[in-house]
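Figure caption, in words: inputs first, then the predicted bound structure.
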Amino acid sequence: MRRKWFAALLAGALVTAGVTGCGGGDAGSGSGSGGDKITLGFSQVGAESGWRTANTKSIQESAAQQGIDLKFSDAQGKQENQIKAIRSFIAQRVDVIAFSPVVESGWDTVLKEAKDANIPVILTDRAVDSQDTSLYKTFIGSDFVLEGKKAGEWLVKEYQGKNDPVNIVELQGTPGAAPANDRKAGFAEVIKADPKFKVIASQTGQFTRTDGKEVMEAFLKTYPDIDVLYAHNDDMGLGAIEAIEAAGKKPGTDIKIITVDAVKDGMTALSEGKINYIVECSPLLGPQLMDLAKKVKAGEQVPQRVLTEETTFTQEQAKAALPERKY
Ligand code: AHR
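Bound structure (alpha-L-arabinofuranose present):
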């Protein structure tokens, strides 16, 4: 009787957390202990951007290719959904848990639960701010501070030798998310060396096109003399371009635009002269994540930090790279 009650409760928890099987696995039955096949529970942030869609595809395809039973859960941008998903992965006794944290803080309790259950955790794409680094095995993803610095360095070069004030507006990513915090910090650190650079407004656009457009419309109404837009991702930049054009201004010329990601739509706008510079952030983390999952399951040592290799694109470089761009 008690077992039946527990099974019903668990089934309810799985539905609430939106956990679905993928790559040939059965979402309800999962157990990492049977057979050689590794079961990986992955909690994704959501589907807020082109980057995220490409990241999800990379993870799902790599799992299928490498014969990993992937239990995929979409948190729809909510930390509480990720916590529920991680708890359901623990209840299912998956072999490895990976997740891309919506925000940096508030993970210690659930990570401790995974550790107590002896299930290794891999942080993917974004970091957590837990002091206890034994709560996860490794962290694979980009250096977001460096990405912000690269954006700032391009700006400093672009305005070299000019003395007039440069009015910058910033579209931040999701509040509390590592890429929003770090891209802001990296950019600010570089531009603070020259007082002519002034961030006159900085607000979240939630990493989405819709919010990017809406916030940019408000910026344009309040500040008639914007020189530069720094958007923490392509999607917000693309939304802002619509707002700039609707306001009768020319994106890339009247207002210079720097974004992060380098997804196809962003690269297209860059090649058309509507964006001036893009700092790449690669979403193709799937193959490395599967390798790491196999290693931690086998009890092998893995590096604490696995950095993604990335580049930057000017308008000319975007034209050359676009035909081969996969996402
Ligand atoms: O964590 C990576 C960031 O999340 C991407 O740069 C952004 O587009 C996404 O939503």
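Residues 48-49, 51-52, 125-126, 179, 207, 233, 260-261, 281 surround alpha-L-arabinofuranose (CB under 6 Å).
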